[in-house]
Structures are given as structure tokens and as C-alpha cells.
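Field: COMPLEX_INPUT
Field: COMPONENT_COUNT = two
Field: RESIDUE_TOTAL = 310
Field: MODE = joint
Values follow.
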Amino acid sequence: MADRSTIPDDAAQFMEDNRRTFMVTLRKDGSPTAHPMAGFFGGSLYLNMYAASVKAKNLGRDARICCIVTNAADAQRFEGAIYKGKARALPVEEVFAERVPVGLAWARNPGSQGSQEQPDVPPEDQRKIGDTAGRVKRGVRVIYEIAPEEVGMIQELREE
Amino acid sequence: MPREHADIRMNAEELALFLGTQTRCILGTLDAEAGPWGDAAACVFLDGALYFRVPRKARSFANIQRDSRVCCAVEDNVTGAGYYEMKGAIVHGLATTVSDPAVAKRVASALDQIPDPVTGSPAEDGAVFSIGVDDVASFDFAKIKRRFEM
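Field: COMPLEX_OUTPUT
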């Protein structure tokens, strides 16, 4: 059997083109939950969330995660990729390193188009909506990198 | 300081209206190692319960046979929608088969109109499950009042 942690080209291309993501994690009692959010793919899949959110708390307890990256809700035909793996919260120094994977560049600065340019972080009293990078630097938001264990288009992985 | 999501949940009436418009959900189940697994399923909201259909060959079906704890997530993120137009709900519960023949017939009739999201075809050999809506997390970003506070 092919190594399912290798990201197939079609799934990679799909995730580069689509950011609508549902992250399935485990609640405190071990039951599944699924949160919609943005996923940033490039190298790996990266997720940016509030450190105090239920999503982050779930990952802090159990790093196992299964993401479904999909097209828009009103698309005539549903398409999706499955990205199952383990999440790791990235330290601030790693997030703002000089050269980072494209997905991380997107996640730390969603307006960057994946550019390596360091995001502008305005002073606290001048911050405004959209200041994702500042929130990451202040620890209000955290970026997770998902190490892939099983990735592919949903029709390829849906059955054993 | 209260977080913004305390104010953005849908009430029961809003939730019923919203779920009534949905035909596809992201289904979360537990795999053999009790880890998370995701799938997409056709769904319909009828008489206060959410019904969804899973192909019997799917890993999700096997997962539900082993552990019936599931969640169904729906989100109205349409092309070109702004952040403050998004709505969504995550319904948690135990997947149960429909035992009442009259209900089963109505649900089957409604789900027959909805193709399987993954295959795009009418489901062949699909199993139908229901979950209640008493453990739901929902959001309607139009309700955000404290937009710029953390």
C-alpha cells in the first residue's frame, strides 16, 4: 500500500486552491467535534486560532486531528481533501523565522498571499482588525502545524 | 471579559431555520484507535432531528458501528460571503438508526432527493442515522457586537 502520509499531487493542488476547512478533534469526553475555519496549505497544513478557544484546548489535550478541506458551501459539486495527522503548536520564534513554509507564511499573515515578507505588527494602541500577526506575537492566537499521517482526496480515502 | 461567542449563538428557532436549509454536513466519527475521522454526508433536518446518510462501505459507517458518538458540522460559507455573514452549527450526539417506519419513510423520501456529496450520485446502500439537537454549538457572525476586542 502507498504511504498515505505522502501528500498526493491532486490533494496538494486542491488544498492550495481551497482554504475552507473543518477540523475534527476530540472533546474532553473523547467524543468528536468539528469546527469550521481557514486552513493554509503549503508544505504542511497550518491552522491559526485563538489560544483560549475550544479548538486549541482540544488539541492541547489530544493532538490527533482530521481536517476536511472543501470548496465553497454553495459549490454545485462538493469536493474535499482529508488531512489526518498530529497538531503541534508552533513557538513564536518559529512562526516568525526568516524563511518559513508557504502555508505558515499564509497562516501568520493571511493578507500576504504566502509571501515571506515579515508581517507588519503595529503598536498595541494602533492595532486593528486583521492584525493576525500581532495577536500571534502576543500569544493571543496560536498557529498549529499538522504533521501528515494520511492525506488524499476524500473519494480516495473514504473507504478502507 | 466575556468572549464574543457568548453573544453569537443561534436560538432554537434560528437554529431550526438554519438547519432546515442544509443538505450537506461534515461528519466527525471515532476511528478504531478512538481518534478523529472526517467525512461528508447528505443530511436533512426534520421534526427537530438531524438525519444523515453514510454509505455502508465508508469508514464512517464502520466507525459508527463501533462507537456511535458523532458530530455533524454545517456552515453557510458561500462564495463571496463576508466574515460577518457566516453561520454555522456543530451538532453532537449519538447516531441512532430510525426505528419508526413512518419516520423512516419520510426521511428516506427527503434524503432520496439529495445525492451523496462525495460521489455526487444517489447513495447506493446508504445507512441513515439521526441525532438530536440538544448538544449544539452554533454561531451567527452577524451577531458579533464586540468585534475588535479580545
